[in-house]
Structures are given as C-alpha cells and as structure tokens.
Write a structure and sequence with these properties.
The protein is α/β, with parallel strands linked by helices. Helix 4 runs parallel beside helix 5, helix 8 (206-231) crosses helix 9 and helix 13 runs parallel beside helix 14 (359-374).
C-alpha cells in the first residue's frame, strides 16, 4: 500500500510538473505574441531620418516570426523590398522626415531589387530637397551600387568596399551520379534550355556559355554604367577598379579614386546628419526604419475604398497543389479568383519573382490570369529579380509586362528529367523483375531505362508542352509564333534585352506597374493600393509554422555549409517530372 501511495504521489507531482511546464510555455508564447503586437501605429517624430539598414537578405515581402524574435534567434535578418519602396515614397511628403540615411552592410539582394530601390531614391531626390547620405563599414557590390545615388557616400576609415563584376558558377553532378550508378534520362526542347546540364555534363555547353555571357555582361553594363554616372568616373576606370580588388585595398584607395566622398566613423556620420538637419550635436535624432514608416501610415479597410489596385505577390518555385512553399497553383488561383470577385478591385498588378517550376501548374495559373482579364480587370505584371520559364509562362498574357533592366526572364522552354537507377541497384546487389498486364504498365519504373517506344512518347509529350508554351506566349504578346520561336529555345534574357525583342513592354519597377494598371482601369489619381495575399497575424504565423524553415535549421546544424547541396537534392526529389525552369541558381550578387 505504501508503495502504491508513493507511486501515486510521484505521478501527481510528475503531472503537476508537466502541466506547469505547459502553462509556462503557453505564457511565454502568449508573451511573445503580445510583445510583438504590431496593431499600434508608429508616430514619426520631429527631426527624424528614414534609416535604410542594408544588411541581410532581401525578398519582395517578409513575414515576421514572433518566436524567433522573442527567443533572439541569431538568424540572418530579412529585408522586405515592399517596405523599403513604400517607406521611401512616404518619406517624400512626411514633414518630420528630414532625409534618408543609408547604412550599407553585408547585403544579399539581386540587381533588379537594388535597381528598384536606387530608382526610388533618385525619385526621392528629384521630388524633394531632402538629403540622402550613405555610410558603410562594409560595402558589398550591390549595396555600393545602390548607395552611389546618395548626395554623399562615406566609408569607415577601416572599412572595405567591393566591386568585382558578375559571375555564374553552376555545379555539375554527373560525376557523382556516375559513381553511384544513376543515369538521368533527359527530354527537352530548346538549344539553350540548360537546366538539365548539371546532370548530364561536366561543364557548360557552348550554347549555355553564350547566353550566360550575354546576360551577365548586359547586367554588369547596367550596374557599372550606373556607378560611373553617379560617381562621375569613366566606365573604363570602373572596370579597372573591379579588376584591382578594391575590397582588399585601404580605404584611401576608394577615396582617391572617387568611389567615396569621405572617411568617417559612424559617430561622426551621426553628427554630420545633425548638421544637415540643423540639430545640435547634444540633441537626439530619430532613426525610423522602413517597418516603422509603413506602420505610421496604416491601410484603410478595403471596403472603404471603391477603386483599388491590388498587388498580388507570386514569389518562389511554381508547384502544383496548395500545401507547399513558394507559388502553388491552388493558392495563387484562389487569390486571383478572390480579386476577380472583389468589386472594389479594378486592376491587378501581379508581382512575379520566380525561376519557374511545374509546367502543368504554370498552365493552370495562366488560365486564372486569363479569367481575370475576361472580368474586365486589367492585369499588369511587375517582374522582380527573376520571372523566367514558368515565371514567364504565368506572365505572358498580362495586358502589360514591366521588368527591371536586370530582371532575368525568358527561358521559354520545358524539359523532363527521369532517373534510371538500375546500375545503382546492381552495385548494391539488388535486382528487379516485373509482371504486367499491358505493354506500358510499368512505364516510368526507375529500376530500368526507357525503351525506344517510351522515349519517343515522352519526347512527343515534351514537344507538345513546348508548343503550348510557345502558343501562350505568342498569343499573349501579340506575336507570330514563328517570330517568337527565335527568342525562345529556352534562352534567358535580361529585362533590357527582353524589351528590345518584345518579351516585355516597359522597363521599371512595381510603382510603374501600379501607375500603368491604374491608367488601364481609367482610375485617374484617386485610388487605393492593397497587397495580397494578406500577411498572417502572429497567431496564424505560429499555428502555420513553416516546416520548411524547421527542416532547414535542423539541416544547417548537421550539415553546415553543405546544407545548400542537401536542399538542392531535396528540391529535385520533390519536383514534378515535367518542368519549365531556368538553368540554375544565379550567384551574381
């Protein structure tokens, strides 16, 4: 009996501890959510400066993770392009904002995003008499390109400034696949459709090197000319500097070669800002973040506005379904349908930032865009960093297409990638057999290669898919299919090149796309702009915790720098067999 009561007491104490722990965790979670409540608006004080802290990874939009913030996870900060652009526009007319202070750091952002911000800053300078000052301990090439638009560019005396040009360095896996006995069976259309090359070659093909050289040189021309013009340096000098590895030189080299205007420590920069504002050095100034600035001007309820231009963000790889990350046809089609049925929405800007993905899902999204246009709602595509292959597929039938000069686009082509692991099984001493009722009952069996009939059927299927892709693009762009075909073949173009050949209509950013959409809908200048999908609140974000993020964090703990290879293999395993995708990840930052 004594033993029984001892066990019972231990069980009660154990349950109490567990219950207490659960309550404590709940209190912590609730505290995290409450402490990061963003429902209250921010008030911009007198003597404020818009502070653009360019350190982290830039994406079109950023959803906050309240628990990561609460527990102080040391994650790389994310910067929302939408917040940065909106804050610059709002700062124009806010009398409490005296100017913009750019603090450059280690920034990961594409040329297209940087160009959008740079153009917004140029517009800020043209429309106001407010200052723009840039300072950096470390100027990455992208952050420096953006910062050159400032009235004054300053660097820390012990800092560094990097200009090196662009490069693309794909990895090839054929040797690894050969060692493990995997043969990739390829079916594609397009001389330049090089997404399959890493699995069948040990180096880039001649055609692929040609297209890559073309677009990265065009992108570098835009960047280097922008630097040369802003800093009043000859373009030849910019290229000489890029070849001289300025990041490894003393900062006096940057000063002597007109890359910067002054050498200062950050404390001295703050005094300089106060001088520009006419504020005594012993007084404080308020540094307002883009998030603060946007919060200071909350959106009015959509129901209060009769004329709305909707911005619908489509970012990531294109997949079928609705439960995966990135762009899924289920979710995006649902959003497009809601905008079609929303009487207040008069025009839609589809912001596309995608390297492509599933050809089937791309076709379904294309149809939803076509339905939206039939509802007499103009659709304008704003291309972000990349809108290629499937990303171009979902864009091609818009009323207008706007791209940055350095947007990666085109790549009109599709491919199929099918592994044959028969040699792998043989190496492991595994064999397979089959019993089937029909000739093609085991079609797609990865334990054997395709026979001639199966290969012919697959290539015919790919050809049909390519012809449909080409037809969609030709119809959407109002071009003859034969004329468009010479710009297809899977070839990648910059936004600037794409405009010259008719794949896009205008060079510009999301603000230009909004203006065009409003004009097409005859809205004049009185309309509201709202973003979709709506951002999750803190509870939704917690309950819908991104499992992909958890997997990535766990993988980083175990794999370290090799996590990118792991994620590449994971993504390849999850892809549908028929893809409309650009060749590879671009390391051109």
């Amino acid at each position: 009996m004594k033993s029984f009561f001892s066990s019972l007491l231990a069980s009660i104490i154990g349950c109490a501890i567990v219950l207490g722990t659960c309550v404590l965790i709940l209190i912590i979670v609730m505290g995290a959510l409450m402490s990061f409540d963003t429902s209250e608006t921010y008030t911009v004080k007198k003597n404020s400066v818009l502070h653009l802290n360019l350190a982290g990874v830039m994406t079109d939009r950023v959803e906050k993770n309240p628990l990561a913030e609460f527990f102080g996870e040391n994650a790389t900060p994310k910067i929302a392009l939408s917040d940065v652009l909106s804050s610059i526009e709002l700062a124009k007319t806010d009398n409490n904002i005296s100017g913009i202070y750019i603090k450059a750091g280690i920034l990961s952002a594409s040329s297209a995003s940087l160009t959008e911000i740079r153009n917004a800053l140029k517009g800020f300078k043209e429309d106001t008499d407010k200052f723009v000052v840039a300072y950096g301990d470390i100027y990455t090439q992208g952050a420096y390109y953006l910062s050159t638009v400032a009235d004054k560019v300053i660097i820390n005396p012990e800092g560094s400034l990097d200009i090196h040009g662009f490069s693309v360095s794909p990895m090839f896996y054929k040797g690894l696949l050969d060692k493990v006995g995997v043969k990739m069976q390829i079916f594609k259309v397009g001389t330049f459709k090089s997404a399959v090359e890493p699995y069948i070659n040990n180096e880039m093909s001649v055609a692929n090197k040609e297209q890559v050289s073309s677009y990265i040189n065009d992108m570098w021309a835009t960047t280097s000319n922008g630097i040369a013009e802003a800093r009043n340096i000859d373009i030849k000098k910019v290229n000489e500097i890029a070849d001289y590895a300025p990041a490894l030189r003393e900062t006096k080299y940057a000063l002597e070669n007109k890359l910067v205007d002054d050498l200062m420590y950050e404390s001295e920069v703050h005094k300089h800002l106060k001088d520009l504002m006419g504020v005594a050095h012993d007084k404080k100034i308020s540094l307002v973040t883009p998030e603060n600035m946007v919060s200071a001007y909350p959106e009015t309820a959509v129901s209060d506005k009769n004329d709305v231009v909707a911005i619908l963000y489509a970012e990531g790889t294109i997949n079928s379904g609705s439960s995966r990350d990135g762009i899924t046809d289920g979710r995006l089609i649902r959003e497009l349908k809601n905008l079609e049925e929303n009487k207040n929405v008069k025009a839609v800007v589809l912001r596309v930032n995608s390297p492509g993905g599933s050809a089937y899902a791309s076709e379904q999204i294309w149809k939803a865009v076509a339905d939206l246009k039939k509802a007499n709602k103009p659709v304008v595509v704003s291309m972000g960093d990349v809108a290629a292959s499937g990303g171009y597929y979902i864009s091609c039938n818009a009323d207008r297409i706007v791209a940055s000069p350095t947007t990666i686009t085109g790549s009109i082509g599709i491919f199929g990638l099918f592994p044959n692991v028969s040699k792998t099984l043989s190496k492991l001493g595994i064999s397979s057999d089959v019993v089937k009722t029909n000739e093609l009952s085991d079609f797609g069996n990865i334990s054997r290669g395709f026979n001639d009939k199966e290969s012919e059927l697959l290539q015919s299927y790919i050809d049909k898919g390519y012809d449909l892709f080409l037809t969609r693009c030709a119809d959407g762009r109002g071009m003859q299919k034969d004329s468009l075909a010479k710009y297809a073949e899977g070839r990648v173009w910059t936004g600037k090149q794409a405009k010259e050949i008719g794949l896009v209509d205008e060079l510009g950013g999301v603000e230009d796309a909004i203006r065009i959409a409003a004009d097409l809908a005859n809205l004049g200048k009185s309309y509201a702009v709202y973003e979709y999908p709506k951002m999750k609140n803190k509870f939704e974000e917690l309950l819908n915790k991104n499992k992909e993020e958890l997997v990535t964090k766990a993988a980083k703990e175990w794999l370290g720098d090799n996590v990118d290879l792991f994620l590449m293999l994971k993504n390849q395993n999850e892809q549908e067999f028929i893809q409309a995708r650009i060749p590879y990840e671009l390391n051109i930052k």
